[in-house]
What we know:
This protein has helices at 3-11, 18-29, 35-48, 52-63, 92-101, 120-125, 136-146, 159-169, 177-190, 211-227, 249-260, 266-282, 289-301, 304-315, 320-324, 351-363, 402-415, and strands spanning 79-83, 106-110, 148-152, 195-202, 231-238, 246-247, 334-339, 344-349, 377-380, 387-388, 393-399, 416-419, 429-434, 437-440. By secondary structure, the chain is an alpha+beta fold. Uracil binds at residues 84-85, 111, 114, 174, 179-180, 183-184.
Amino acid sequence: MTVNELIRKKRDGAALSPDELRYIVDGFVQGLIPEYQMSSFLMATFFRGMSVEETSTFTRLMLHSGEVIDLSGIPGVKVDKHSTGGVGDKISLPLAPIVAACGVPVPMISGHGLGHTGGTLDKLESIPGFTTSLSIAEYKKVIAEVGVVMIGQTKEIAPADKKMYALRDVTATVECIPLIAGSIMSKKLAEGSDALVLDVKTGRGAFMPTYERSLELATALVGIGNSFGKETIGFITDMNQPLGMMIGNWLEVVESVECLRGKNVSDIMELTYVLGGAMVMLGKKASSLKEGMERCNEVVKNGKAYEKLLQLVKRQGGDTSFIEHPEKYPQSKYSQKINCPQSGFVTAIDSLELGFTGIALGAGRTRVDDVIDPKAGIVLTKKVGDAVNAGDTVAILYTDNKNAIESSAKRIEKAFAIGPAKPKPSPLIISQVDKNGVKPFKI
Ligand code: URA
Protein backbone atom coordinates (compact mmCIF):
# COMPACT_ATOMS: atom_id res chain seq x y z
CA MET A 1 0.00 0.00 0.00
CA THR A 2 1.27 3.50 -0.74
CA VAL A 3 -0.38 6.75 0.26
CA ASN A 4 -0.29 7.83 -3.33
CA GLU A 5 -2.39 4.80 -4.35
CA LEU A 6 -4.92 5.44 -1.59
CA ILE A 7 -5.26 9.11 -2.48
CA ARG A 8 -5.83 8.10 -6.10
CA LYS A 9 -8.39 5.49 -5.07
CA LYS A 10 -10.36 8.05 -3.08
CA ARG A 11 -9.92 10.67 -5.80
CA ASP A 12 -11.49 8.25 -8.29
CA GLY A 13 -14.49 7.66 -6.04
CA ALA A 14 -13.80 4.19 -4.61
CA ALA A 15 -14.44 3.27 -0.98
CA LEU A 16 -11.40 2.53 1.19
CA SER A 17 -11.26 -0.60 3.31
CA PRO A 18 -10.84 -0.36 7.11
CA ASP A 19 -7.16 -1.33 6.72
CA GLU A 20 -6.60 1.35 4.11
CA LEU A 21 -8.24 3.99 6.28
CA ARG A 22 -6.16 2.83 9.24
CA TYR A 23 -3.01 3.21 7.14
CA ILE A 24 -3.93 6.84 6.42
CA VAL A 25 -5.12 7.87 9.90
CA ASP A 26 -2.36 6.11 11.86
CA GLY A 27 0.32 7.14 9.35
CA PHE A 28 -0.69 10.78 9.67
CA VAL A 29 -0.76 10.70 13.48
CA GLN A 30 2.66 9.03 13.57
CA GLY A 31 4.10 11.65 11.22
CA LEU A 32 4.76 9.09 8.46
CA ILE A 33 2.33 10.81 6.10
CA PRO A 34 3.29 14.43 5.46
CA GLU A 35 0.78 17.27 5.49
CA TYR A 36 0.89 17.70 1.69
CA GLN A 37 -0.30 14.13 1.15
CA MET A 38 -2.87 14.37 3.93
CA SER A 39 -4.19 17.63 2.44
CA SER A 40 -4.59 15.86 -0.86
CA PHE A 41 -6.42 12.95 0.78
CA LEU A 42 -8.71 15.39 2.62
CA MET A 43 -9.50 17.21 -0.62
CA ALA A 44 -10.22 13.91 -2.41
CA THR A 45 -12.56 12.99 0.45
CA PHE A 46 -14.15 16.43 0.28
CA PHE A 47 -15.14 15.79 -3.33
CA ARG A 48 -15.85 12.06 -3.18
CA GLY A 49 -17.26 11.65 0.35
CA MET A 50 -17.31 8.40 2.31
CA SER A 51 -19.86 5.61 2.62
CA VAL A 52 -21.68 5.09 5.95
CA GLU A 53 -19.28 2.20 6.71
CA GLU A 54 -16.21 4.27 5.86
CA THR A 55 -17.46 7.16 8.02
CA SER A 56 -18.04 4.85 10.96
CA THR A 57 -14.59 3.22 10.55
CA PHE A 58 -12.95 6.62 10.11
CA THR A 59 -14.60 7.88 13.33
CA ARG A 60 -13.54 4.76 15.24
CA LEU A 61 -9.95 5.15 14.02
CA MET A 62 -9.88 8.82 15.00
CA LEU A 63 -11.36 7.97 18.40
CA HIS A 64 -8.83 5.20 19.06
CA SER A 65 -5.90 7.30 17.86
CA GLY A 66 -5.86 8.33 21.52
CA GLU A 67 -7.26 7.47 24.90
CA VAL A 68 -10.95 6.97 25.65
CA ILE A 69 -11.56 8.57 29.03
CA ASP A 70 -13.50 6.63 31.62
CA LEU A 71 -15.62 8.88 33.84
CA SER A 72 -17.70 6.06 35.29
CA GLY A 73 -16.27 6.82 38.74
CA ILE A 74 -18.00 10.21 38.69
CA PRO A 75 -21.62 10.06 39.82
CA GLY A 76 -24.42 11.20 37.52
CA VAL A 77 -25.19 10.96 33.82
CA LYS A 78 -22.52 13.05 32.11
CA VAL A 79 -23.82 15.05 29.14
CA ASP A 80 -22.08 17.28 26.62
CA LYS A 81 -23.13 19.32 23.60
CA HIS A 82 -21.29 20.13 20.41
CA SER A 83 -22.05 22.57 17.65
CA THR A 84 -21.09 21.97 14.05
CA GLY A 85 -19.82 25.54 14.01
CA GLY A 86 -21.22 28.99 13.48
CA VAL A 87 -20.53 32.70 13.63
CA GLY A 88 -21.01 34.36 17.01
CA ASP A 89 -21.78 30.87 18.32
CA LYS A 90 -20.69 31.22 21.93
CA ILE A 91 -23.44 28.96 23.29
CA SER A 92 -21.06 26.54 25.06
CA LEU A 93 -19.90 29.34 27.36
CA PRO A 94 -23.24 30.06 29.05
CA LEU A 95 -24.59 26.53 28.46
CA ALA A 96 -21.96 24.40 30.22
CA PRO A 97 -22.17 26.24 33.59
CA ILE A 98 -25.97 26.40 33.38
CA VAL A 99 -26.28 22.63 32.89
CA ALA A 100 -23.66 21.93 35.57
CA ALA A 101 -25.56 24.22 37.96
CA CYS A 102 -28.62 22.02 37.34
CA GLY A 103 -26.62 19.05 38.69
CA VAL A 104 -25.69 17.41 35.38
CA PRO A 105 -21.90 16.94 34.98
CA VAL A 106 -20.59 18.43 31.72
CA PRO A 107 -17.25 17.12 30.41
CA MET A 108 -16.48 19.23 27.34
CA ILE A 109 -13.69 18.85 24.80
CA SER A 110 -13.79 21.57 22.17
CA GLY A 111 -11.82 22.79 19.20
CA HIS A 112 -10.23 26.01 17.98
CA GLY A 113 -11.88 28.15 15.32
CA LEU A 114 -12.40 26.29 12.07
CA GLY A 115 -12.78 27.93 8.66
CA HIS A 116 -14.96 31.02 9.09
CA THR A 117 -16.42 29.79 12.40
CA GLY A 118 -15.22 30.55 15.91
CA GLY A 119 -14.05 27.89 18.35
CA THR A 120 -14.85 27.53 22.04
CA LEU A 121 -11.17 26.95 22.83
CA ASP A 122 -10.08 30.30 21.39
CA LYS A 123 -12.80 32.01 23.41
CA LEU A 124 -11.78 30.31 26.65
CA GLU A 125 -8.11 31.04 25.95
CA SER A 126 -8.94 34.75 25.69
CA ILE A 127 -9.61 34.69 29.47
CA PRO A 128 -6.27 35.66 31.07
CA GLY A 129 -4.68 32.61 32.71
CA PHE A 130 -7.36 30.11 31.65
CA THR A 131 -5.78 26.84 30.60
CA THR A 132 -7.47 24.49 28.18
CA SER A 133 -4.68 21.91 28.29
CA LEU A 134 -5.16 19.70 31.31
CA SER A 135 -3.81 16.21 31.85
CA ILE A 136 -6.47 13.53 31.88
CA ALA A 137 -6.00 13.11 35.64
CA GLU A 138 -6.59 16.84 36.13
CA TYR A 139 -9.57 16.78 33.75
CA LYS A 140 -11.17 14.10 35.92
CA LYS A 141 -10.43 16.08 39.09
CA VAL A 142 -12.02 19.26 37.71
CA ILE A 143 -15.23 17.55 36.61
CA ALA A 144 -15.47 15.79 39.99
CA GLU A 145 -14.93 19.03 41.91
CA VAL A 146 -16.75 21.62 39.79
CA GLY A 147 -19.22 19.53 37.78
CA VAL A 148 -17.94 21.00 34.52
CA VAL A 149 -14.61 20.98 32.69
CA MET A 150 -13.75 22.58 29.34
CA ILE A 151 -10.56 21.61 27.55
CA GLY A 152 -9.08 21.06 24.09
CA GLN A 153 -7.76 17.83 22.69
CA THR A 154 -4.60 16.89 24.49
CA LYS A 155 -2.06 14.68 22.79
CA GLU A 156 -3.91 11.78 24.41
CA ILE A 157 -7.43 12.65 23.20
CA ALA A 158 -8.27 12.03 19.55
CA PRO A 159 -4.83 13.22 18.36
CA ALA A 160 -5.82 12.35 14.79
CA ASP A 161 -8.53 15.01 14.95
CA LYS A 162 -6.26 17.55 16.59
CA LYS A 163 -3.82 17.29 13.68
CA MET A 164 -6.41 16.95 10.94
CA TYR A 165 -8.57 19.77 12.28
CA ALA A 166 -5.69 22.24 12.07
CA LEU A 167 -4.93 21.12 8.52
CA ARG A 168 -8.58 21.24 7.38
CA ASP A 169 -8.89 24.74 8.79
CA VAL A 170 -6.37 26.10 6.30
CA THR A 171 -6.92 23.82 3.29
CA ALA A 172 -10.62 24.51 2.58
CA THR A 173 -11.59 20.95 3.48
CA VAL A 174 -13.96 21.63 6.34
CA GLU A 175 -17.41 21.41 4.75
CA CYS A 176 -17.51 17.65 4.33
CA ILE A 177 -19.94 15.38 6.21
CA PRO A 178 -17.63 12.38 6.94
CA LEU A 179 -14.76 14.66 7.98
CA ILE A 180 -17.02 16.70 10.27
CA ALA A 181 -18.62 13.54 11.67
CA GLY A 182 -15.23 11.91 12.38
CA SER A 183 -13.90 15.10 13.91
CA ILE A 184 -16.81 15.85 16.20
CA MET A 185 -17.67 12.34 17.24
CA SER A 186 -14.08 11.21 17.92
CA LYS A 187 -13.68 14.03 20.45
CA LYS A 188 -17.11 13.53 21.94
CA LEU A 189 -16.80 9.76 22.25
CA ALA A 190 -13.34 10.09 23.83
CA GLU A 191 -14.28 12.55 26.55
CA GLY A 192 -16.27 10.19 28.77
CA SER A 193 -19.78 11.63 28.42
CA ASP A 194 -22.77 9.30 28.56
CA ALA A 195 -25.07 11.30 26.30
CA LEU A 196 -24.79 14.05 23.76
CA VAL A 197 -26.74 17.02 22.40
CA LEU A 198 -25.74 18.28 18.96
CA ASP A 199 -26.42 21.69 17.50
CA VAL A 200 -26.27 21.22 13.75
CA LYS A 201 -26.19 24.58 12.05
CA THR A 202 -27.81 25.33 8.75
CA GLY A 203 -27.70 28.36 6.47
CA ARG A 204 -25.26 30.89 5.13
CA GLY A 205 -22.82 30.84 8.07
CA ALA A 206 -22.92 27.07 8.55
CA PHE A 207 -20.67 24.47 6.97
CA MET A 208 -23.86 22.98 5.54
CA PRO A 209 -25.76 25.87 3.95
CA THR A 210 -28.85 23.91 2.89
CA TYR A 211 -31.37 22.27 5.20
CA GLU A 212 -31.06 18.96 3.29
CA ARG A 213 -27.28 18.76 3.82
CA SER A 214 -27.66 19.77 7.49
CA LEU A 215 -30.21 17.02 7.97
CA GLU A 216 -27.81 14.55 6.33
CA LEU A 217 -25.08 15.68 8.74
CA ALA A 218 -27.40 15.55 11.77
CA THR A 219 -28.57 12.06 10.81
CA ALA A 220 -24.94 10.87 10.43
CA LEU A 221 -23.88 12.37 13.78
CA VAL A 222 -26.91 11.10 15.71
CA GLY A 223 -26.53 7.65 14.09
CA ILE A 224 -22.84 7.43 15.10
CA GLY A 225 -23.56 8.63 18.66
CA ASN A 226 -26.33 6.10 19.21
CA SER A 227 -24.35 3.28 17.58
CA PHE A 228 -21.56 3.91 20.11
CA GLY A 229 -24.09 3.60 22.95
CA LYS A 230 -24.42 7.34 23.76
CA GLU A 231 -27.96 8.67 23.62
CA THR A 232 -27.71 11.51 21.13
CA ILE A 233 -30.22 14.23 20.22
CA GLY A 234 -29.54 16.71 17.43
CA PHE A 235 -31.20 20.05 16.74
CA ILE A 236 -30.96 21.74 13.35
CA THR A 237 -30.68 25.46 14.02
CA ASP A 238 -30.50 28.56 11.89
CA MET A 239 -27.12 30.16 11.12
CA ASN A 240 -28.21 32.64 8.47
CA GLN A 241 -27.31 35.53 10.73
CA PRO A 242 -24.74 35.54 13.56
CA LEU A 243 -25.86 34.45 17.03
CA GLY A 244 -26.10 37.30 19.49
CA MET A 245 -24.51 40.70 18.93
CA MET A 246 -20.80 39.93 19.32
CA ILE A 247 -18.31 38.09 17.11
CA GLY A 248 -14.72 37.63 18.31
CA ASN A 249 -13.16 35.68 21.14
CA TRP A 250 -13.11 37.98 24.17
CA LEU A 251 -16.19 39.84 22.91
CA GLU A 252 -18.08 36.55 22.96
CA VAL A 253 -16.91 35.79 26.50
CA VAL A 254 -18.24 39.20 27.55
CA GLU A 255 -21.62 38.58 25.89
CA SER A 256 -21.86 35.13 27.50
CA VAL A 257 -21.09 36.57 30.93
CA GLU A 258 -23.76 39.23 30.42
CA CYS A 259 -26.27 36.50 29.58
CA LEU A 260 -25.35 34.54 32.70
CA ARG A 261 -25.84 37.71 34.70
CA GLY A 262 -29.39 37.93 33.43
CA LYS A 263 -29.23 39.89 30.16
CA ASN A 264 -31.70 38.43 27.70
CA VAL A 265 -29.95 38.34 24.33
CA SER A 266 -32.96 36.60 22.85
CA ASP A 267 -31.44 34.23 20.26
CA ILE A 268 -28.58 33.20 22.56
CA MET A 269 -30.89 32.45 25.47
CA GLU A 270 -33.53 30.71 23.33
CA LEU A 271 -30.94 28.30 21.96
CA THR A 272 -29.15 27.91 25.29
CA TYR A 273 -32.36 26.96 27.08
CA VAL A 274 -33.41 24.41 24.45
CA LEU A 275 -29.97 22.73 24.25
CA GLY A 276 -29.63 22.98 28.04
CA GLY A 277 -33.14 21.60 28.58
CA ALA A 278 -32.29 18.60 26.42
CA MET A 279 -29.02 18.06 28.32
CA VAL A 280 -30.76 18.27 31.70
CA MET A 281 -33.36 15.81 30.45
CA LEU A 282 -30.71 13.38 29.14
CA GLY A 283 -28.89 13.84 32.46
CA LYS A 284 -32.06 12.62 34.23
CA LYS A 285 -32.59 15.84 36.18
CA ALA A 286 -35.82 16.61 34.33
CA SER A 287 -38.50 14.42 32.83
CA SER A 288 -39.12 16.52 29.73
CA LEU A 289 -37.42 19.11 27.56
CA LYS A 290 -39.77 21.78 28.94
CA GLU A 291 -38.94 20.92 32.53
CA GLY A 292 -35.23 20.89 31.67
CA MET A 293 -35.58 24.37 30.17
CA GLU A 294 -37.30 25.60 33.32
CA ARG A 295 -34.46 24.24 35.46
CA CYS A 296 -31.95 26.06 33.26
CA ASN A 297 -33.92 29.29 33.56
CA GLU A 298 -34.00 28.99 37.37
CA VAL A 299 -30.22 28.68 37.74
CA VAL A 300 -29.68 31.76 35.60
CA LYS A 301 -32.22 33.73 37.65
CA ASN A 302 -30.85 32.67 41.03
CA GLY A 303 -27.22 33.31 39.98
CA LYS A 304 -26.06 29.69 40.41
CA ALA A 305 -25.01 29.40 36.76
CA TYR A 306 -22.89 32.55 36.96
CA GLU A 307 -21.31 31.25 40.18
CA LYS A 308 -20.56 27.99 38.39
CA LEU A 309 -18.78 29.88 35.60
CA LEU A 310 -16.64 31.73 38.15
CA GLN A 311 -15.81 28.44 39.86
CA LEU A 312 -14.82 26.87 36.53
CA VAL A 313 -12.68 29.82 35.42
CA LYS A 314 -10.89 29.89 38.77
CA ARG A 315 -10.34 26.13 38.82
CA GLN A 316 -8.81 26.16 35.33
CA GLY A 317 -6.42 28.95 36.25
CA GLY A 318 -8.34 31.91 34.82
CA ASP A 319 -8.39 35.35 36.40
CA THR A 320 -12.00 35.78 37.50
CA SER A 321 -11.54 39.52 38.01
CA PHE A 322 -11.80 39.88 34.20
CA ILE A 323 -15.11 38.01 34.26
CA GLU A 324 -16.41 40.21 37.05
CA HIS A 325 -14.98 43.41 35.56
CA PRO A 326 -14.68 42.90 31.78
CA GLU A 327 -13.90 46.61 31.35
CA LYS A 328 -10.40 45.82 32.75
CA TYR A 329 -9.54 43.90 29.56
CA PRO A 330 -7.12 45.59 27.11
CA GLN A 331 -8.86 47.52 24.32
CA SER A 332 -8.19 47.20 20.59
CA LYS A 333 -6.01 49.93 19.12
CA TYR A 334 -8.60 50.75 16.49
CA SER A 335 -12.36 50.71 16.27
CA GLN A 336 -14.63 51.88 13.50
CA LYS A 337 -18.37 52.33 13.25
CA ILE A 338 -20.10 50.97 10.16
CA ASN A 339 -23.09 53.10 9.23
CA CYS A 340 -26.06 52.14 7.15
CA PRO A 341 -26.21 53.87 3.74
CA GLN A 342 -30.03 53.79 3.48
CA SER A 343 -33.22 53.63 5.53
CA GLY A 344 -35.44 50.55 5.78
CA PHE A 345 -35.22 47.23 7.57
CA VAL A 346 -32.32 44.82 7.96
CA THR A 347 -33.46 41.87 5.83
CA ALA A 348 -30.30 39.72 6.08
CA ILE A 349 -26.85 39.70 7.68
CA ASP A 350 -24.34 37.57 5.82
CA SER A 351 -22.81 35.54 8.63
CA LEU A 352 -20.28 33.79 6.36
CA GLU A 353 -18.91 37.15 5.28
CA LEU A 354 -18.80 38.41 8.88
CA GLY A 355 -17.00 35.22 9.93
CA PHE A 356 -14.27 35.80 7.33
CA THR A 357 -14.12 39.49 8.16
CA GLY A 358 -13.59 38.61 11.83
CA ILE A 359 -10.59 36.51 10.77
CA ALA A 360 -9.19 39.41 8.72
CA LEU A 361 -9.48 41.63 11.81
CA GLY A 362 -7.39 39.13 13.80
CA ALA A 363 -10.04 36.95 15.47
CA GLY A 364 -9.10 33.75 13.58
CA ARG A 365 -6.33 32.01 11.68
CA THR A 366 -5.43 31.83 8.01
CA ARG A 367 -2.35 29.69 8.71
CA VAL A 368 -1.88 26.86 11.20
CA ASP A 369 0.64 28.92 13.19
CA ASP A 370 -1.24 32.27 13.19
CA VAL A 371 -1.63 33.91 16.60
CA ILE A 372 -5.12 35.16 17.38
CA ASP A 373 -5.86 38.64 18.68
CA PRO A 374 -8.44 37.90 21.40
CA LYS A 375 -9.76 41.48 21.39
CA ALA A 376 -10.49 41.61 17.66
CA GLY A 377 -13.99 41.27 16.31
CA ILE A 378 -17.29 42.83 15.41
CA VAL A 379 -20.14 44.12 17.58
CA LEU A 380 -23.48 44.25 15.82
CA THR A 381 -25.87 46.98 16.82
CA LYS A 382 -28.68 45.82 14.49
CA LYS A 383 -30.07 42.38 13.69
CA VAL A 384 -32.41 41.04 11.03
CA GLY A 385 -35.84 42.67 11.36
CA ASP A 386 -34.56 45.89 12.96
CA ALA A 387 -35.56 49.22 11.44
CA VAL A 388 -32.69 51.50 10.37
CA ASN A 389 -32.32 55.07 9.21
CA ALA A 390 -29.63 56.13 6.78
CA GLY A 391 -26.52 56.92 8.84
CA ASP A 392 -27.42 54.61 11.75
CA THR A 393 -24.57 52.47 13.04
CA VAL A 394 -25.17 48.80 12.27
CA ALA A 395 -21.87 47.43 13.58
CA ILE A 396 -18.52 48.40 15.10
CA LEU A 397 -15.27 46.66 14.24
CA TYR A 398 -12.31 46.23 16.60
CA THR A 399 -8.76 45.41 15.56
CA ASP A 400 -5.07 46.10 16.16
CA ASN A 401 -4.39 45.71 12.43
CA LYS A 402 -4.64 49.11 10.79
CA ASN A 403 -4.35 47.61 7.30
CA ALA A 404 -7.48 45.52 7.82
CA ILE A 405 -9.81 48.39 8.72
CA GLU A 406 -10.82 49.80 5.37
CA SER A 407 -11.52 46.55 3.53
CA SER A 408 -13.22 45.01 6.59
CA ALA A 409 -15.50 48.03 7.02
CA LYS A 410 -16.58 47.67 3.38
CA ARG A 411 -17.22 43.94 3.81
CA ILE A 412 -19.32 44.51 6.92
CA GLU A 413 -21.37 47.23 5.24
CA LYS A 414 -22.05 44.90 2.30
CA ALA A 415 -22.96 42.05 4.66
CA PHE A 416 -26.06 43.97 5.77
CA ALA A 417 -28.96 43.76 3.30
CA ILE A 418 -31.50 46.56 3.72
CA GLY A 419 -35.00 46.42 2.23
CA PRO A 420 -38.22 48.42 2.40
CA ALA A 421 -40.26 45.81 4.31
CA LYS A 422 -39.73 44.08 7.63
CA PRO A 423 -38.88 40.42 6.86
CA LYS A 424 -41.04 37.63 8.27
CA PRO A 425 -39.36 36.10 11.35
CA SER A 426 -38.01 32.59 10.74
CA PRO A 427 -37.50 29.95 13.43
CA LEU A 428 -34.12 29.68 15.13
CA ILE A 429 -34.58 26.02 16.06
CA ILE A 430 -35.93 24.19 13.05
CA SER A 431 -36.04 20.47 13.75
CA GLN A 432 -35.03 17.72 16.11
CA VAL A 433 -33.26 14.51 15.10
CA ASP A 434 -33.02 11.55 17.44
CA LYS A 435 -33.17 7.76 17.39
CA ASN A 436 -36.80 7.98 16.24
CA GLY A 437 -36.01 10.12 13.19
CA VAL A 438 -36.57 13.77 12.38
CA LYS A 439 -39.46 16.03 13.43
CA PRO A 440 -40.14 19.78 13.32
CA PHE A 441 -39.01 21.37 16.56
CA LYS A 442 -41.72 21.94 19.17
CA ILE A 443 -41.39 22.30 22.93
N1 URA B 1 -16.56 21.03 14.86
C1 URA B 1 -15.59 20.10 14.95
O1 URA B 1 -15.13 19.75 16.04
N2 URA B 1 -15.13 19.55 13.82
C2 URA B 1 -15.61 19.87 12.60
O2 URA B 1 -15.16 19.32 11.63
C3 URA B 1 -16.62 20.86 12.52
C4 URA B 1 -17.08 21.42 13.67
